[in-house]
Amino acid sequence: MADILRTALYLFISVFVILNYGLLLNGLVRKIVARAHGRVGPPIWQPWLDILKTYAKRSAISHGVMFFLGPIFRLAGGLGTYLFIPAIYGSVMFANLSFSGDLLLVMYFIFFGQLGMALGAGEGGHPNSAIAVGRGLSQMTSFELPFALSVIALAIQYHSLSITEIVAAQQGGILNWTIFTNPLATFAGLFALLGMNMHSPFDIVLAPQEVPIGPPTEMQSSFLGILQTNRAIFLSAKLVLFMNLYLGGATNIFAMMLKTFMLYMLSVVVGVSFPRFRTEQSIRFFLGVPTLLGLAAVIIFML
């Protein structure tokens, strides 16, 4: 019982830290993007205020059971993705439940949250929700292909699907990181990360000025609060996952924050530099060079 309580406490601390880190990233990036556009932008602490405000409100809107479950499934996907990843290699507190799952389980949770949100938004009464769901699922299918090929290449390279073992194999120096030992798989994965983060030119789901807010169009009050909470957790979870797979993981919290921040800035820089793709342009992009890079990585390591 003592071990169970200790594990639960560590998980609570880990989720609390990653939630606030994700909110900090969102606040910083909104300020950076505003400066790039020549605006002042909201304060860095605005994401915390938004969450408190939305959780304090109540809504009488209902479109059925799945409408309520959509945000719950989305949050479950974000939490599941993070909880089975070692946030800090060698740390007892931030190891999470990485000993209980592998990379395939984490990929399942990534899909689970997005599919759950699609079902919930699809039951809403606003046409923009259904439009954005169709766009989002199309783009998700296209960027998951190069990511899956990248994962297959890593499994062949490291002879394991355990994220902890993949991180352990990259210890001993920067030249052991996957970005240097398997650059093709790394770049295929990083291209997929651009789609997962959904910054411009891949923000076809939220589609600013066209399909406002996308799937969460009718999600308000506490429903929107759950989605905002998941946005912070899921963002951080994806960054930690890619850090573990391609950048050697992190042995302390400062290394984790530095590496994940640099990964996120990759999406931000691309986002402020390029206009948004249309749906077919985004799909064509991911099925082009990123997929070819993933295929090449798999073939090279098979040979």
Describe the secondary structure blueprint for this structure.
Blueprint: H1 2-36, H2 46-56, H3 65-83, H4 103-122, H5 127-158, H6 163-169, H7 178-181, H8 183-197, H9 221-246, H10 253-273, H11 279-286, H12 289-302
Summarize the structure.
By secondary structure, this protein is mostly helical. Helix content is 70%, strand content 0%.
Content-based structural category = mainly alpha
- Helix content class: 55-70%
Would you tell me the overall average pLDDT?
Answer: 85
Please tell me what the overall shape is: globular
* Uncertain runs: none
Determine Rg (CA atoms, Å): 19 Å
Kindly give the count of domains.
1
* Helix/strand order, N-terminal first: HHHHHHHHHHHH
Give the oligomeric state. Answer: single chain
Tally of DSSP helical segments: 12
Distance between the termini: 49 Å
Structure, explained:
With 303 residues, the protein is mainly alpha-helical. The protein has 12 helices and no strands. Helix 5 (127-158) packs antiparallel against helix 8, helix 5 runs parallel beside helix 12 (289-302) and helix 9 crosses helix 10 (253-273). The protein is globular.
